[in-house]
Design a protein that fits this description.
With 240 residues, this protein is α+β, with helices and mostly antiparallel strands. 30% of the residues lie in helices and 17% in strands. The chain contains 8 helices and 8 strands; from the N terminus they run H-H-E-H-E-H-E-H-E-E-E-H-E-E-H-H. Helix 6 links the parallel strand 6 (151-155) and strand 7 (184-187). The radius of gyration is 16 Å and the shape is globular.
Length: 240
Amino acid sequence: MPNMGFRKHFPRTGPLRAGRAARAGILAAALGLLPVAADAGALPAPAFDPPAAGSSETAVLAGGCFWGIQAVFQHTRGVIRATSGYAGGSAATADYEAVSRGKTGHAEAVEVVFDPAAISYGQLLRVFFSVALDPTQVDRQGPDVGPQYRSEIFAADDRQRRVATAYIAQLDAAKAFAAPIATKVSPLAAFYPAEAYHQDFAARNPMHPYIVFHDKPKVEALHRDFPDRFLTEPTLLERK
């Protein structure tokens, strides 16, 4: 089992929104990290967001450590299930030790199954870009560095691809961030669930230093910026 207590324990670098001055916290300064951005609120809704048919839809999203991405969507109303895992590589290398070496093609990702009548795919992406990651970073999120921590949307079909690419273009045109969005949009080949000890990690380990500094602020931002979409009690896999 990887030494998770050492590997993931620093606070993240938040999204750098255009027109907002970044502020450095004392802890971040002491650790030599980049300053955390000032709170900027929710991003604009997608202009292009056609509805999906069916009672459920699946999105696969990568944006750094999967613990925090899973936690955000487990607190999002309309999400049926959020599973940490791997996407972008093969089944043979879809395990934590291999992926952590950064040479498998996999990204740490989360499979989000949701009710499109309660939350659309575009609205899910709005939450993702607003609170779950800094989409301007390349092959890293905050203290986690390597291609396995890249920002990537794995589109299940052409509609998802068009919604994702249109929303990224919309945000870039609006200069929503201080730098261009680096998030890739790629076709989904397969998603592989991560090991059991990674599932529901934030809920099971609320005092883990990495969760406290890196992921709890994401859930708090979801509550602040999307109060109508926030679930106080997360939808956990262990309850399924």
